């Protein structure tokens, strides 16, 4: 049922023929599952290591770890800006790691490199 602008079935004076119409209070609405999709998530991590045996029992391991090798920005889903009528409706403003409180090494963070030397005996 598509209505024109004017009084909607809930009694509000609004244009309820838009795709982001707020349903009446106490109802669920008729949007299908997965109607809105957020941006994809892609992150490549890389580790290079070299084991060097010194003597019979001593091993030195040199490690180079790189997180988000391609330095691709991965953005959070649209869940934070879902207020209809807001000026930021539908705008992605953060990455998933910032949204969860860890802005360093996680999905969406900038490229990060670690160098390490591990001694095993």
Structure notes:
This protein is mainly β and 121 residues long. The chain has two domains: 1-28, no CATH class; 45-121, no CATH class. Helices cover 4% and strands 26% of the residues. The chain contains one helix and five strands, in the order ββββαβ. It has one helix at 96-100, and strands at 6-7, 13-14, 46-54, 58-67, 112-120. The chain has a three-stranded antiparallel β-sheet with strand order 3-4-5, with no helix packed on it. A hairpin with a 5-residue loop joins strand 1 (6-7) and strand 2 (13-14). The mean pLDDT is 75.
Short description:
The protein has 121 residues and is mainly beta. Helices cover 4% and strands 26% of the residues.
Shape: rod-shaped
SSE sequence, one letter per element: EEEEHE
**How far do the termini sit from each other?**
74 Å
Which segments are poorly predicted (pLDDT under 50) over 5 or more consecutive residues? none
- Overall strand count: 5
- Strand percentage lies at 25-35%
Count of domains = 2
Estimated radius of gyration: 25 Å
User: What is the tally of helical segments?
Assistant: 1
Helix vs. strand class: mainly beta
* Strand order within the widest beta sheet: 3-4-5
Helix content: under 10%
> Please, what is the average pLDDT?
75
Largest β sheet strand count, sense and barrel closure: 3 strands, antiparallel
Structural features:
mainly beta, 4% helix, three-stranded antiparallel beta sheet, 121 residues, 2 domains, two-stranded antiparallel sheet, 5 strands
